[in-house]
Each structure stands twice: as structure tokens, then as C-alpha cells.
Amino acid sequence: MNLAWKIMKNSIYTFENGEKEHSFFCMNLVKFLSVEKEKEQLSYEQFSKLWRVRFDAARNGACHYREECSIYKRTLKAGVRQTMK
């Protein structure tokens, strides 16, 4: 399988195999998760679970950090689809 990165202007990264987007990655999500990890002093297991929950929510258009995220606000204004399904 030949995957290619597609970098959008808003720091959201998608992966393509020539046909359909399969995944995404957001640098702000990583930043918010890291801050939450430090603030809450989460263990590796707790952080792993939090990562999965928050990442799945963001991928489905319901990012936990949407109220404080400038990227999420810009994508709403631009009419960008909020799910990666």
C-alpha cells in the first residue's frame, strides 16, 4: 500500500492511499493532550486511554478541545467537514 501525507493549511494531517482518506492527525490535539497529561499527572495507562478517547472524538468531529482550539474554529468558518469517516 502506498500512503501519502496530505497536509492541510490548518495543521490537520490526513493519510491517503490514492482513493480515500483513512486517518488524520492534529498537532493541536497532541499539545492539548500533553498539557492535560501533565496537569492531571496521568500514568502511562491513563494517558493511553485518554489519547484513544480524545483522538476518536476528534476524528469523528467532536473534539474535546474544540472550544479552545483556533484550528477547529477556523475549519468551522471555512465549512470544512468535521469528520474523517
Polypeptide structure, described:
The chain is of the alpha+beta class and 85 residues long. It is 46% helix and 18% strand. A three-stranded antiparallel sheet has the order 1-2-3.
Mean pLDDT: 75
Q: Are there runs of 5+ residues with pLDDT below 50, and where?
A: 1-8
Secondary-structure-based class equals: alpha+beta
Helical content (DSSP H or I, runs of 4+): 40-55%
Our measurement of the CA-to-CA distance between the termini, rounded to an integer number of angstroms, reads 20 Å
User: What fraction strand?
Assistant: 15-25%
How many runs of DSSP E, i.e. beta strands?
3
Largest sheet: 3 strands, antiparallel
**What is the strand arrangement across the widest sheet?**
1-2-3
Gross geometry = elongated
Q: Count every helix, treating DSSP H or I runs of 4 or more residues as helices.
A: 3
What is the CA-based Rg, rounded? 14 Å
Brief overview, please?
This protein is α+β, with helices and mostly antiparallel strands and 85 residues long. The protein is 46% helix and 18% strand.
Features:
85 residues; alpha+beta; 3-stranded antiparallel β-sheet; 3 helices; 18% strand; elongated
